[in-house]
Design goal:
Blueprint: H1 12-31, H2 35-48, E1 52-53, H3 54-60, E2 69-73, E3 79-83, E4 93-99, E5 104-115, E6 118-126, E7 139-146, E8 152-157, H4 177-180, E9 195-198, H5 210-214, H6 224-228, H7 230-236, H8 245-258, E10 268-274, E11 279-281, E12 287-290, H9 293-307, E13 315-321, H10 338-349, H11 357-360, H12 364-373, E14 376-380, E15 383-384, E16 406-409, E17 413-414, H13 425-437, E18 442-444, E19 454-455, H14 459-463, E20 468-473, E21 475-476, E22 484-487, H15 488-502
Parallel strand pairs: 1-2, 4-13, 4-14, 14-20, 15-21, 16-18
Antiparallel strand pairs: 2-3, 3-13, 5-6, 5-10, 6-9, 7-8, 7-10, 11-12, 12-22, 16-20, 17-19
Length: 506
């Protein structure tokens, strides 16, 4: 079965729509490089489209009806949207699920150090990365610092043209004979991923002690004149032998510019990501090079498809979650009870026409179970695109190709389908019908050769409720690298796929 390029199907109107979506998507992933930032932007877009905060509706004791639009936030790191349909909730939902976390480096809680007059922040990598890919790239810091008084400082450093950037250094090839003899998985160890953040020492005058300088008290002496006299001033201090002047300078900058202390790193969530915007790729501008296509290519298209829904027959749900890259664990991952709890809250607020258990005489708990069992879901996560440069890792007949449309994975997992959700043949047939009726370009695939490796998504977590689930998403080249590649055609077909699915009644 040979699929053809989705590009052949586009007339001028479709190409205009594709380009507009691609431009909006590039802006979204350029401005939102963390799960917190994605959630804030998703809330803004939802509210502009008439969605109401479920927490507020609960406090007001509102009565929900068909056509109502609502959202719920999970600790600022995830969001769930619902558009109530015409059919009772017990008839189930059409669900889109994607994740908004991406592989990255996280700054440790006690990160700041100085070594040979260079200041570093220690990091701990998050998700599956090739560590060597993160060396010598311009990097940015995004995140929040929570202070003891209950306030928070939002940080985004390295994205604006006037911002500094940061880097992890590498060994020059002239001295790298031993390094180059190691396996790629070994020549850069996790503890070597230290972020270079400074080299200039804080200068102090003869009347200021080194201890005061380290604590940031000498900020007022950090003038251009003082810099030229810094070596002499440091030599005059009582503790010059132990004074870490470069580290002190970083502490001083953090205090003056950002209002945080070294101790505040203890309650910070700071993520190190590639600096700079997503860009068009290729002479034909047919592709996008960007950070976080996995899985924001699917999260953004799911979000935009949901926002375009009016009043569907079946209730439409989109959930964007955190922590997928490390197993979907924790309070903001898919394994938490957030998804189920939100639906339970909605069952309490809807009128009798949407929750028939209220007049039929059975419990809300049973109604919730029946609802979840009847749901249909697209686990919207990216897939590996065939790369001719690494053809030996793929089985060509069952690979996804850039530009041939959204990719469906009947099963993921590793080797013997370990850890996968394996969609029923009947559900795959129903999905085929929906896609064909909507003229969506799609393809089917597996994640590489059977014994080569594999991976998973959130699909199996939702499948535990007994609902039908299949993985589908945008094919990606260089997945999990700092800069990944997708086709604009596949992004567009993902959006069209999700639109068709949310409007379907099977």
């Amino acid at each position: 079965m040979k699929r053809t390029s989705a590009w052949f199907a586009y007339d001028n109107d479709k190409l205009t729509e594709l380009d507009e979506l691609a431009e909006d998507y590039k802006a979204f992933i350029s401005q939102n490089k963390t799960e917190r930032e994605c959630t804030v932007s998703a809330v803004d877009l939802a509210e502009q489209s008439g969605f109401k905060n479920l927490a507020v509706l609960c406090d007001e004791g509102a009565k929900l009806k068909s056509g109502d639009k609502l959202y719920a936030i999970n600790r600022g790191k995830g969001i769930m949207l619902m558009t109530l349909g015409e059919l009772p909730l017990e008839d189930g939902f059409n669900i889109l699920g994607a994740h908004i976390d991406s592989p990255r480096l996280d700054i440790k809680q006690n990160p700041l150090s100085e070594d040979k007059e260079l200041a570093y922040l220690d990091t701990h990598y998050y998700g599956g990365i090739k560590k060597y890919q993160w060396l010598t790239l311009p990097l940015a810091i995004h995140g929040v610092v929570a202070l003891k008084d209950g306030s928070k400082k939002e940080l985004s450093i390295g994205e604006q043209e006037e911002d500094p950037v940061f880097v992890i250094t590498d060994l020059l090839p002239h001295l790298a004979a031993d390094q180059m003899g190691k396996k790629a998985s070994e020549f850069v160890e996790g503890e070597m991923l230290d972020l270079l953040v400074g080299n200039r020492p804080l200068t102090i005058d003869a009347e200021t002690s080194a201890d005061d300088a380290v604590n940031g008290a000498a900020a007022t002496t950090n003038s251009a004149d003082a810099t030229t006299n810094g070596a002499a001033a440091t030599a005059n201090s009582a503790d010059a032998s132990t004074y870490e002047a470069v580290k002190a300078q970083i502490i001083d900058i953090l205090s003056l510019s950002l209002g945080i202390s070294e101790e505040d790193f203890l309650s910070a969530e700071l993520e190190v990501v590639p600096a700079g915007p997503a860009r068009d790729l290729g002479f034909d501008r047919s592709m996008i090079l960007g950070y976080g296509h996995d899985d924001r290519a699917c999260a953004y298209t799911s979000l935009m498809a949901h926002l375009a829904v009016e009043t569907p027959r079946r209730t439409a749900v989109t959930i964007l979650v955190d922590k997928e890259e490390i197993g979907s664990v924790g309070a903001t991952g898919m394994t938490s009870r957030f998804f189920e709890d939100v639906i339970a809250e909605v069952f309490e607020l809807v009128d009798d026409t949407l929750a028939i258990h209220k007049t039929a005489g059975y419990s809300a708990e049973l109604a919730l179970r029946r609802c979840l069992r009847k749901c249909d879901m697209l686990s919207s996560d990216v897939s590996a695109a065939f790369d001719p440069a690494f053809a030996s890792a793929f089985e060509v007949k069952n690979s996804a190709f850039l530009g041939q449309g959204i990719a469906f994975n009947k099963y993921t997992g590793s080797r013997g389908k370990g850890g996968s959700n394996d969609a029923d043949a009947e559900y795959v047939a129903a999905i085929r019908r929906i896609m064909d009726d909507a003229d969506v370009s799609y393809q089917t695939c597996e994640l590489g050769k059977v014994d080569q490796g594999g991976g998973g998504t959130i699909a199996y977590i939702l499948a535990k409720y007994g609902m039908d689930v299949i993985d589908c998403g945008v094919p990606v080249l260089s997945m999990h690298a700092p800069w990944e590649v997708i086709s604009k055609a596949d992004l567009f077909e993902a959006y069209r796929c999700y639109m068709a699915f949310l409007a379907s009644t099977q």
